[in-house]
């Protein structure tokens, strides 16, 4: 499924431009692209709000400033000159007629749907009815369904008018520079490849910890929960990066290998799944008083291929935990016992995604003045050695406008990740209550019994 259209977009049309995602992420990302000289086309916003281009520009500036991004007047003036607005109801065919008039003469449009997935089909129908989909790329936000059957139904809506090469499904984790670094570190350093297999690795731990709760997002979060919110998408994509085979390159080369890896992951076992809910969650506005939604999840996955057979992949993710950190930790097997060596700790290789992205290699060295060993950290924080990285949405929107689908998710990848977690959705264990500020319910520790205990995340020195 190689992209048929790799040309640069000559117009970007954003449905839902007056919404929260645009305010928090999109305007800032587009402004940063403008500052770097990478924005090359006009931007047309579409929303129900009856705004002028001037009102949209004022809103954009306020949104950018609210993110803490410094605003250069000259750069913003160039950015604002690109903005225009079409107002209308997404259910009204006249809205798409107005969009067609606004982009008349443009041949390579990108339509970005910053709207609920329930509206995707309606908008694509409207675009098709106005004759706007033939050479278009359409960018859509997660969630891509809430289970396997709904994901397939959503794809049926999109594919009624679009081919797969035209659909760009965003998972912002794939746009994170430290996530992309994983592939480069794995395959551009020949010392790593001989170690990256079941003969050398005992277990892999993936942690995504948040030190805050649901707060004012109860209405959104309670129907979703941690498994759907971050595991089925973000964290399984990280497994795809850490465990997939090398690719021959190209957008579908990378995605083919991730999907191949997903296909080799067994369906998750509910007996190896722990659900937790932090105390006080049910008192949050928008949360059902008898809610069984998990705010913490821990699970064990198995990959049935030659490289990874027998190596467990443990995932834990949750809210109201002690720290904010996302990392992948590869734990190597112990060396064999030798007469002159005491029992040593294990080597570990850590990819830190957030905060302060970097890598750390934990080695064992002799303790000075004693016949024992101690851990030595060979850590590298990327910001100390490299230029500032683009933001995830900055990278992904730029890629979409240039026709590069490498960091976007293909439909077969969506369906495979839903297949993996489907048994956990169908037969979930009861939630266990845990205290805010703890590392979740006790069952999470029992999950790793017989393997290395959960490690404390590697955190920046200042945190």
The strand count comes to: 15
Structural class determined from secondary elements: alpha/beta
CATH superfamily annotation of the largest domain: Dihydrodipicolinate Reductase, domain 2
Gyration radius, rounded: 24 Å
Measured as a percent range, the helix fraction is 25-40%
Q: Oligomerization state of this entry?
A: single chain
Question: Which CATH first-tier class of the largest domain would you pick?
Answer: Alpha Beta
Instruction: Give the end-to-end Cα distance, rounded to a whole number of Å.
Output: 44 Å
Strand portion: 15-25%
What fold name goes in the CATH topology slot of the largest domain?
Dihydrodipicolinate Reductase, domain 2
Strand order of the largest sheet: 14-13-12-11-7-10-9-8-15
Query: What is the count of DSSP helices, taking H or I runs of 4+ residues?
Result: 14
Pfam families: G6PD_C, G6PD_N
Catalytic activity: D-glucose 6-phosphate + NADP(+) = 6-phospho-D-glucono-1,5-lactone + NADPH + H(+)
EC number: 1.1.1.49
GO cellular component, one term: cytosol
């Amino acid at each position: 499924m190689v992209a048929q259209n790799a040309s640069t977009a000559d117009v970007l049309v954003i449905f839902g431009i007056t919404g929260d995602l645009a305010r928090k992420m999109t305007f800032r990302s587009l402004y940063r692209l403008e500052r770097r000289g990478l924005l090359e086309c006009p931007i047309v916003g579409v929303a129900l709000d009856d705004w002028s281009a001037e009102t949209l520009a004022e809103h954009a500036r306020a949104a950018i400033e609210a993110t803490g991004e410094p605003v250069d007047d000259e750069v913003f003036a160039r950015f604002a000159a690109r903005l225009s607005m079409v107002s209308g109801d997404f259910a009204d065919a006249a809205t798409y007629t107005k969009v067609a008039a606004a982009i008349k003469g443009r041949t390579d449009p990108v339509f970005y749907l910053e709207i609920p997935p329930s509206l995707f089909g309606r908008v694509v129908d409207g675009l098709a009815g106005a004759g706007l989909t033939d050479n278009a790329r359409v960018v859509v936000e997660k969630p891509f369904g809430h289970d396997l059957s709904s994901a397939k139904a959503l794809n049926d809506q999109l594919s009624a008018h679009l081919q797969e090469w035209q659909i760009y499904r965003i998972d912002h984790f794939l746009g994170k520079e430290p996530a992309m670094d994983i592939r480069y570190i794995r395959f551009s350093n020949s010392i790593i490849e001989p170690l990256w297999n079941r003969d050398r690795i005992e277990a892999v731990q993936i942690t995504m910890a948040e030190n805050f709760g649901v707060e004012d997002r109860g209405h959104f979060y309670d129907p979703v929960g941690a498994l759907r919110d971050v595991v089925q998408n973000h964290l399984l994509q990280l497994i795809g990066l850490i465990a997939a085979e090398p690719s021959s390159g190209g957008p579908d080369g990378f995605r083919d290998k991730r999907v191949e890896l997903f296909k080799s992951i067994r369906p998750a076992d509910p007996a190896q799944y722990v659900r937790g809910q932090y105390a006080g969650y049910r008192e949050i506005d928008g949360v059902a008083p008898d809610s069984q939604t998990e705010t913490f999840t821990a699970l064990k996955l198995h990959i049935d291929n030659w490289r990874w057979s027998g190596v467990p992949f443990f995932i834990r993710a949750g809210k109201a935990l002690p720290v904010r950190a996302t990392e992948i930790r590869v734990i190597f097997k112990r060396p064999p016992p030798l007469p002159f060596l005491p029992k040593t700790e294990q080597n570990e290789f850590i990819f830190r995604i957030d905060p302060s992205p970097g890598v750390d290699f934990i080695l064992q060295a002799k303790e000075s003045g004693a016949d024992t060993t101690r851990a030595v950290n060979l850590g590298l924080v990327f910001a100390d050695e490299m230029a500032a990285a683009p933001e995830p949405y900055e990278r992904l929107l730029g890629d979409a406008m240039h026709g590069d689908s490498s960091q976007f998710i293909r439909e077969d990848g969506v369906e495979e990740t839903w297949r993996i977690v489907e048994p956990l959705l169908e037969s979930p264990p009861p939630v266990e209550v845990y205290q805010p500020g703890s590392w979740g319910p006790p069952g999470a520790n029992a999950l790793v019994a017989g393997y290395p205990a959960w490690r404390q995340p590697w955190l920046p020195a200042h945190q």
